[in-house]
Amino acid sequence: MSLFSVFNVAGSSMAAQSQRLNVVASNLANADSATSSTGEAYRSRQVVFRTIDVTADKAKGVKVAGVVNDPSPMRVVYDPKHPMANEKGYVTLPNVNVVDEMVNMMSASRSYQNSVDMMNVTKTLLQKALTIGQ
User: Which residues are in the Flagellar basal-body/hook protein C-terminal domain (predicted)?
Assistant: First the structure.
């Protein structure tokens, strides 16, 4: 693998983790929404990754394969005064687990930062290699 391949690998990671952070932000923003644009409770979403070849020498990177709805059950809360309550007084709320989403956010931001650090170290190595011949 070429030293320049590091930039392609790290770049693919940064793009994927950026999308993951956007999905986490959307989940957290809708954690207590009783209704969404479809009229139903918001359903948590998760990012699915897959590996890809990012260079001719088969260096592996990551790409978002898709964003899927979380199949876990929705939260049901008894609140008969809520305007979205059914005839029995229950409100269906999103299946967003705030603690899990915070863990996802921390993991994605650290992965993003690791990729930035990897690119910076590679840049420094290449700069030092150029100064050897002087």
Answer: 88-131
